[in-house]
Batch of 4 targets.
Target 1
Amino acid sequence: MNTLKQEALTAIAQLPETADIDTMMYRLYVIDKVMKGREAVEKGETISAEDLKREIEAW
C-alpha cells in the first residue's frame, strides 16, 4: 500500500495542467476519506446497511 504522500503525489500528477487548487484539494480530500474508510473496515468499525438506514430514519 502506498503512503499518503505517495497517493497525494500520484493523484496530483494525474490531474490536467489546468487544474486549479480547489480541484487538487478535493482530490486529496477524497483520497483521505477513502483511506480512512479502508482503515475502519480493517478494524471492523463498520455498521450494517440496515443499522445505517435506521439511524437516518431516526433523524
Target 2
Amino acid sequence: MACPPKAWGRLILNLLFMKNTRFTLFLLLLLLSPHWVYAAPSCIVVSGHPGDAAFGAAIEASSHTWQEAAKKAGYGSKLVSSLASEGEASQLERLRAELAAVETPSQDPLWLVFTGHGNAQGNVPRFALMGADLGADELAALLAKIKRPMVLVLGFSCSGAFVKPLAASNRQIIAATRSGEEENWTRFAKFFAEAISGLKADLDGDGQVSVFEAWISAVDAVEGFYKDAGRLVTEHSVLEDSGLGKPEGRAAFNRFGEYLGKKADSSAAPGVRARDAFFMASPIEALLTEEERVRRSRLEGELARLKSEKAGMGEEEYRKALEAIFVGLAGVYEGARKRLPSE
C-alpha cells in the first residue's frame, strides 16, 4: 500500500484540524500495518541515602514508579538501592558494577535516575549514598566509558552543580535544582517520575511523553506545590540537552514550550533534543533512524518558524510553504513505514 510523499502531504493538509502533526502521521501509519519493532533501552535507578524515614518513603516511592514504568515499557532495568544485605558490596561499588556492565556501544538510550540528597560543599559536588558518596567527577569518568545516548535524571538537592561536569554530546540532563546552593529536599523527583511514566504530560497529543514535556509538567507541578503550601520556592529545575553545559530553566521557554533565546540554529536550540527522547515511546518512534530524527527535527524547526511568520505572509504563500514541510515530514515517516516487516 504505497503512497507517494506528495499525496501524503495533501492528505495531511486535509487533516490539519487535528491537534498534532506527529499524532496525525502516527494514526495514518497505524492503519497501514499491525507490525512494529521496539528498541531495547535500559534504566538504572539509584535510590540514595534517605537521611530519615520521611525522606526514605519518598525516595522509595519515586524508585518504585520508575521500576514499574520500566517494566511496562519493556526496559532492562536495575535498582541500586540503599538497602543492602549483610556482606553485600557497598552501594557505590554496586553502582560502579552496574555502569561497567552497561552494553556499549549502542544506539539504545540509557536512563540513569538518582533520587535522594546531594551537597556541593568542598571542591566536588556529591550524591549521598549508603557508605561512600558519589562525586560528580567520578560519575563523569564512569559515564565517559559508556558509548550510547543517555538521559540523566538528577532528582536531588544541589543537583544543579552536577550539570556542567556531566554535560556531553548525545546526553540530556534534568536536574532538580539550578545550582549547588539549593540545598533543601526537592519535590521535583516525584513529579517528574509521575509525568514520564504516564500520558497526562503529553502536551502535543502525539501519544507519548517526551523528556521535555515531562520536565515542563514537573516544573509546573513543583511551582503549584509551593504556591498551594504558601511557601517560598526553594528548588528551580534546569534542563541541559545541548552538551555544552549550559542549563536552561523554565523561564527560557514560553507557555507553548518554545525557546525564547537566540534561534540562529534551531536544531541545536535548548529543548530540541529533549523533545525527541521518550521513556515510553509510541511504536512509530522505534522505526526512525538517527538521520530521520535529525531531518524531522529540522523540518519541525522550519514549521515553527513558518507559523511565527504567518502574519506577514499571503494565504497562498503560507499554504504552499506549509505543504512543502508536511511533504517532507510525510517522507520521513513513509521511509520508516517501508521498513515494516511484511505479513
Target 3
Amino acid sequence: MPICIEGGATQYNIGKIYERSFSMDILKITTDETLRETVSHGNSDYPFAYYPENIWQFDFHRVDWHWHHELEFLYVAEGAALCLAGTDTVYLPEGCGIFINSGVLHRFEAQCSTFAPNIVFSPTLLAPEKSFIYKKYISPVIHSSVPYQIFNPHTTWQNRVLQILSQIFTVQETEQNNELRTVQLLFQLWDELNNNLNLTYSFKDLRRLNHRQASLQTMMQYIHDRYREAITLEMIAASASISKSGALHIFQSGIHISPVAYLIQYRLAQAAEQLYTTQKPISAIAEETGFASSGYFCRKFRQHYHMSPNEYRQSKTWHRSYL
C-alpha cells in the first residue's frame, strides 16, 4: 500500500537547471547491468552533486530504477512524486522530502510537472571511512536496514531537515565558492538524521537484504545479457541458483514486478532506444529485442507506453527537429 503524508511548503530560490543525463530531448538515468547509476556525482576531490530536476521532464515521466553508493536527499518543491524504495511505495506531496540510503534500489514517478531538487553525495565527504567520526556517526546509518526516511514538515525534527535542505539548495544557486558552507550544512543535516532516525540495526535483516539485492542484481544482469534470446522464468531463477518462487518473491519485493514482466519492460526499453536512434524497420527492431513477432511487440509497446512504436518514433523525431 502507498504511504501517504500531508505536505507543506519550503521556499528557496530557483536558478539554473542541471540534469544527470541529457541526450537530445530525452532525460534519463544511465545505469550499468546491475542498475547502479553510472554518472559521477561530483568528483573524487568533492563528491557532491546538486540536481534541481523536474521528474516530468524525464523519459516517460519517471527517474527509473537505479541505486548508488552515495546518499540522496530529495525535496518535492512543486507537484507530487511517487517513490518506490525498498519494498514500499511512498507518496510524496509538495513540501515533503525523502532520504534514500546507500545501495537502495529506488525509482521516482510523476503524474504532472514535479520539481524535485535533490542532492547526492558520498558519505566520505563528511569523514574518511576509517575515521572515528565515520565509524560512530555515519556507518550505523548506512549499514542499517533502513532503506529510506520520509520528511514531513509537520514533524518538528523532519521540518528542521527540510529547512536545512532548503539552505543547501539556496547556497548552490547563489554562492560560487560554496563548498565549505555546503559541508557545514551537511553536518547539520546528518546530525538531525543521526539523532532522530529510528535505526533497525539488525545484522540478520541486513544480511538478508543484501542477499536479496545481490540475487536480484544477478538475475537482472542475466536478463540484460540475454534479453534477445528466448529465456524463461526457470532460466532467470537458475542464474541466481534459486527457485522460481524465490525469483518471483525477490523481484516483487525488490522492484514490484515479476521477472518475466521485467524482461518484457527491458526489451521494450531497448526497442524504444532503437526507435529513437535508428531508422530500422519496426519488424527488425522487434526481432532484435527478443519479441516473437512484430504484432506482439506492437501490442506490448502500446500497452506499456500508451502509443504505437511509429507514434513514439514520430514524436521523438518531431521534438528533435523542433529543438
Target 4
Amino acid sequence: MVKEDYYELLGVAKTVTPEEMKKAYRKKAVQFHPDKNPGNKEAEEMFKKVSHVYEILSDPEKRAAYDRYGAAAFEGGGAGRRGAGGGGGFHDPFDIFREVFGQQGGGGGGGGVFEEMFGGSRDGGRDGADLRYDLEITLEEAASGFEKEISFRKAMTCERCDGSGAEPGSKRITCPTCRGARQIRRSGGIITFTQTCPTCAGAGTKVEKVCTECRGEGRLAKNTKLTVRIPPGVDTGSRLRSSGNGEAGMAGGTAGDLYIVLSVKEHELFERQGEDLFCEIPIKFTLATLGGTIEVPTLFGKASLKIPTATPSGTTFRLRHKGMPSLRGGNQGDQLLRVQVEVPQSLTSEQRKILEEFARVSGDAAEPTSKSFFEKAKKFF
C-alpha cells in the first residue's frame, strides 16, 4: 500500500485533468523505469508506486473513492487488477506502463514512446551512436568561414549484407526466445520482472545465418572522409551538427549524427573579445606628439588609422566593422587598437642635441617633470 499522497507522487494537483495526469505519469515512468536504472532498487520501487498510483487515479470510480476515503479505500485488495472493480489479485506495473506508452502486452513488444526512450525501432533495429570530432582552426578561418575535408573512423553499414547481419541468401527470423517481443518475463515470487531478451539482445529478430563479413552486426568500422562547411563567426566551443554522419544503425536503425566541436587557436596579434578584436600597436613618440596617419593590420588586410596630435600612450582607437562577423547575422564586430608610445632606447649625438634644444625651449630643462611631480606630491605624505 502506498502511504504517500497519490497526487504528490505524480507531481500534480487534485484538480488535474486525465490528460495532464497521463503526461505526468509518462514523465515519472520514464524517470524510474528499471531499464533506465539497472540494479537501482529505489528507482524500481518508485516505478511500482507511480504505476499503482496512476492505475487508481486514472479510473474515475477509484479516483473518487481515493478523494473521499484516501488509500484506506483500497485496503484488503480493493485496488486489485485494473478494471476488476475492486477484486483481488496482483497487478503488474508494466501492464499499465505498456498501456500508457502504446505497447502490446506479452512481456514487451514494440512501439511508441518505449522505443524513443531506449533507442529501438519497430522493426527491431537500433539507432547508431552520435560521434564527436574535435577540429582546431585559426582565427582567420573563423572570421572568413571555409570548407574542410575531415577523416575519421566509424561503424558503417556492411556492404556484403547491406546492414541486415545475415549472409546473402539468408534472412532474419523472429527470435525463438522472446517470439519477437524483444523482452522476456522472469518471475521473482509474486513480482514479475521484464528484461531484454538475451538471445536477440532486444532486437526481436535473429539471422538464420550470420554474415561472414560483419559477423552478424550489420556494420564494420571503416575510415571515411567528409567535407564540412565552417560558417564565419564560429568560436571555441561552437558545435556543428552533420545529420546522419554518425555511426550506422543496426538492422534498419537510423544513423547517428556527427558533431564537429571547434576550438580557435590563439592569435599572435589579435585577442578576441566576443565579436570584437583587440590588439596593441607601437607608435613612435614623434608620431604621438605631431600626429599623422599610419597603416595598421586587420584580419581582412590593412587599414588606415589617424593619430591625433598629442596622443598619450594607452589611447584606444576603434575601427568599425573590422572585427569578427556575427554567427547569428547582423553587424560585424569592431577592432580596438591601443597605442603604446615607444621611447627611443639610444640616441645619436645629433638626435640628443635636437632633443636637448627642444627641452630647453619647452622649459623642461629648467624644471624636469620628475622633480616637479615629487614636489607636488609632498603634500600627500
